[in-house]
Amino acid sequence: MQWPRTRQDIQGLRGLAVALVVIEHAGLGLPGGFVGVDVFFVVSGFVITTVLLRDLGTGVFTFRRFWSRRARRLLPAAAVVTVATAIGTAALLSPFGTQQQGAGTGAAAALGVGNIALYSISADYFSDHVQMNPYLHTWSLGVEEQFYLVFPILVVLAWRFGRARVRIVACVLVVVLVTSFTLSTIVSSAAVLPGVSSPSQFAFYMTPVRSWEFAVGAITAVLSSRTVHARWYPLAATGGLVMIAVSVATVTPGAEWPGTLAVVPVVGAALVLWGGSRTNVVSAGLTVLPLRQLGDVSYSLYLWHWPLLVVARRLWPDDVVAVIVSIGVALSFAVLTTRYVETPFRTGAPRTPWRGLGVPVASIAAGVVACAIVLAGSFESWGSASVRAAADQLLARPVGYDSCLSTVPVPERDLRSCTWGDPDGRPVYLLGDSNAQQYTEAVRDAATAAGRRVVVATWGGCPFIDVGLHRTADPHKGRECRRYVADTTAWLATQERGTVVLAASSEMVVATGDAFTAPDGSLLHRPGAKAALWGDRLAERISGLQSAQFDVVLARTPPHFPGGSRDWWHPVQCQNQIVFRDPAGCAVSLPRSDVEHRQRLIRQAEHRALEATGAAQVDITDDVCRNDVCTTFRSGTWLYRDGLHIAPRYSTDLARRFDDVLAPSR
């Protein structure tokens, strides 16, 4: 069986894939351009399987040879970019979280587990804050490296199993494909699985869920050795390119990915690869010089483009020219890195097996050490006492943040770490989204002072009110929120009666593009209609709790602070020359009249609900907006850690606001 050594159309396909990714990342159109990564995965599966079967067939395969070649091909260039990015991170990115998150991700990426690091911090790939991580793109490199580590073992075991070697390998590949695709379909739809928090993030980042894409490429490599009528090859290549184009044009960030929707670009890439296994006019189109040259530098371009885009957006927010220039710089760096780093290390064979370990080990060590230095420096605020004082407040999260603001159904949680106060005291339950979680210190301190017990059971992005949320950018969020409401309601019915403190970011929910589901099943998009439904459902929720013998307190949504280059203010937007001169200069203020105008509809709706039910309320607007000016910083205290959430230190100061409503007599 003959396995081809070179395929120029594959270089062209790589060039096309990296172009799609770069254009999408740059925000220059093609919102579905991120499917280029899926194309890369298919190409990797195809190429690696071709190499494995060829080497196994000729008897030259050894694990050391395979892994050494992969390491020398990938790690030196990655080390150069990782170290350079670490230097840029230290100099240019904010010490208020971005440096720490970036350096931690970079160190993990150097070790080949960048995807696992991003999943572990529940980093939504498309969220504004995560998009400032200069190592965000390394998740796909982690997936590939983990694939390269495990996949050869499976193929070699299958190859040595019997005489029909290629057929056995194909059967193993089919098993991998079916198993991984089934898992992908389940978790991409945000189904809750044991031991899996943030299922949609698990689906996006983790290798077991992505393995089916490599398997499709691998199976295509096996099938490419079979000859069919010549007319099928150009038809397959054409159909494959059309499928990729359709995905790029129709898929948007936030789709259930890589679930069933990913089948289109993955199969499309496989068809292009299979179609090019015999020379034809369509595949020849992929061998045009610009695409091949782009394919030749695709790996280095992928490495460089994202950190340079992050720097451009950091220094010149919303400047399209800066973004375009950064892409040009990335392309120049990619050419140099390919010529002077990738090619020499890829083609230079070590004299002894032990010398073959030197380059990979040195590459990994360089990246880890560089990122560790940035991580240590940023945690110490680079020796600046004023930055350290600000970071201590801005980087703090509410007590119990990691365990109490969860995506695990409340009845399945171990709530001991989310419970404070007198075990025998009348309970207080803090429920809602992260705008409920932000009051943890205030509710805890007020309740424990009153001799009561506090239980916090919140869910990110989900109020304890069912408005039939429909989020276009995150289709599974509505299902998550409905489950949170249903499961928590059932759980609460089994608990000792006490006081329920409700809170949610009602302003954001009503003002954004999220839709609510009306009783007749139609979607409500107008703010007025959504606010009215919110008020009705809030009144129903309060009345239901009161009927079940719970007292209810509504913590009103505090003022929110819009941002510049992002929807909401965040201290990472502040330029470092301001941060290190006086961090207070990063604070923002706005007239109270602006807050009242934005919150008018939702406050009216909530006021009607409170009047109808007689529930108590806590409103901190007067404290945030003194003298008719709302601010995120006052007298040495950061009131907010971002535009939507108060800081834990300020939450502690607000305990007095909850004293009356949580007094023992209630």
Query: Radius of gyration over alpha carbons?
Result: 27 Å
Number of strands: 15
Query: What is the average per-residue confidence, as pLDDT, rounded to a whole number?
Result: 90
Largest sheet composition: 6 strands, mixed
Supply the number of helical segments. Answer: 28
Description:
The chain is of the alpha/beta class and 666 residues long. The protein folds into two domains: 8-379, no CATH class; 401-560 and 595-619 and 646-659, Rossmann fold (3-Layer(aba) Sandwich), CATH 3.40.50.1110. The protein has 28 helices and 15 strands. Strand 14 and strand 15 form a beta hairpin. Helix 2 crosses helix 11 and helix 7 (165-188) packs antiparallel against helix 9. It is globular and about 80 Å long. The relative contact order is 0.10. This is Acyltransferase family protein. Keywords: Acyltransferase, Membrane, Transferase, Transmembrane, Transmembrane helix. Residues 414-659 form the SGNH domain. Residues 9-338 form the Acyltransferase domain.
